[in-house]
Amino acid sequence: MLFNSNEFVFVFLPVALVGFFLVQRLGGPRAGVVWLALGSVVFYTYWRLENVLVFAASIGGDLMKHRDRIAAKRASLTPDVRWTGRREPVKSLDGR
């Protein structure tokens, strides 16, 4: 599907936008992001269904590559730790 095709402009784009705002309103911001991610998969695999495998491999590779970073980020966001813009979280906002 091309960005300047009639099917994109008059079908895919309106469905994606209306769906995004509805899903986000009903399910929250994360649900809206999931909707857009699924829409992206549909968009890029529209011409050839085999592209789903390439997409899945790419997403899986990215997740495996960044899983340590994701786990570290989750661990650093405990309730007693505040983020001050530094690389390391600190216990209080005055930097001590």
Please mark out the parts with pLDDT under 50 across 5 or more consecutive residues, or reply none.
Answer: none
Order of helices and strands: HHH
- The helix-and-strand class reads mainly alpha
**How many E-type strands?**
0
Oligomeric form: single chain
How many distinct helices?
Answer: 3
Global Rg: 19 Å
What's the domain count? Answer: 2
Strand content: under 5%
Principal-axes shape call: flat
Estimate percent helicity. 55-70%
Average pLDDT score? 81
How many angstroms does the end-to-end distance come to? 55 Å
Sheet of most strands: none
Q: Short summary of the structure?
A:
This protein has 96 residues and is an all-alpha fold. Helices cover 67% and strands 0% of the residues. The chain has two domains: 47 residues, no CATH class; 29 residues.
Describe the structure.
- The protein has 3 helices and no strands.
- The chain is mainly α.
- The longest helix is centred in the middle third of the chain and has 26 residues, at 51-76.
- It is flat, with a radius of gyration of 19 Å.
Write the layout of secondary structure elements.
Blueprint: H1 6-27, H2 29-44, H3 51-76
Helix pairs in contact: 1-2
Describe the structure using short key phrases.
96 residues; mainly alpha; 2 domains; 3 helices
